Amino acid sequence: MLLNIEIKGVQFSNKGAELMLEAILQQLDVHLGEYHLTLSPGRNLPYVKRAKLGAWQKLSFRRGKLDLTGILAKLPTKIRNFLKRYGIVTEADVDVILNASGFAYGDQWPMADLRNTAKEIKRFKALGKPYIILPQALGPFQREELKEFAEVLINDTALTFARDDTSFAECEKLNKSNKLFQSPDFTALLEVQQFNTTEQQSVCLIPNNKVVSKFNHANAEQQKNAYFDFWIGTANFFIDNGFFVKVLNHEGKEDRDICNAILEAVDNEQIALIDGLNSTEIKALIGSCDAVVSSRFHGCVSALCQGVPCLATSWSHKYEMLYGEYGLSENVIDFGLERQELTNKLNHFLNDLTNQASVCLLHAEQVKEQNKKMWQQVVAIIKS
């Protein structure tokens, strides 16, 4: 009987989350060949796109503290078999859960997310089914009310992978098991078809609405003007140096609004909006560019792992940790730099592209080897 594997924390609107889904599917295809895939319905996981992947639709219900998912799993077998005719399964039909939430558990996120995940982990542990936390940013867990659920996340899973040094250190404070490991973002392994390139040098600019979202930073909205000035100054710099500027919408309407504002302000024939690509097309596009400036984490990953020099602006520790892995810590910059400071930084970056590409590729090979080791551990658990 084929294993039924549920993948959680992924979606189609956020292209980083979609990229993680594609990366997981590619590895499951390699290591397992045949299996059943399950995805839960969601606003950013519409039925049509789930159906194209041949995914079972999971029957679940969560509203605040009310979580009926475990109860629905206790439906009689006859009813569950009937639901399968319509492509619907319950938690009882799932053999393995792979959680690829990216960055969803810690002090800055709603407690309900971690609480519901902890309950799910306990249910799977009681049934002897593996629940695996794939590499992601975790913590901090300073809020007392979070620690109980964080301990479950770290100790009651089959495997938990923290993505970086800071995340691992936060998890280690609560670790009482031998199931906690560290491994970098796993999308580096995802192979994509090469994108058509032009003779003219190009740079890809990838803004992120979260950088100036009050949800993530109390004073973020006051920084909006500085953030727009950063992108306008960066776009003009590369245009002045003979580059074609591709402003990429990496996620939804809010990012698109920022992209359009940049294009309107720069108003040059050497700049264009890139929109409507899926995650693998985005990675291929990034791989075709000569340089990238990104506020999106997976925009940075997709550049670095393909040897494309990339500057980043940061809104969480995961950026600094990523660039430490790739030996380019100085490439995480402050978008609030004065114009001359920004110009100096961009000039240094531009003059160092060849060396940076070599550094990226060297570290990318190391990251990919760690990715392979992580998947060996995951597959061993799935097959056990």
TrEMBL record:
GO MF annotation list: glycosyltransferase activity
InterPro entries per the UniProt record, alphabetical: Polysacch_pyruvyl_Trfase (IPR007345)
Keyword RNA-binding: no
Domain Polysaccharide pyruvyl transferase as annotated: residue spans: 14-317
Enzyme class: transferase
EC number, UniProt record: 2.4.-.-
Pfam entry (one): PS_pyruv_trans
Record keywords: Glycosyltransferase, Transferase
Protein name: Polysaccharide pyruvyl transferase family protein
Annotated source species: Pseudoalteromonas spongiae
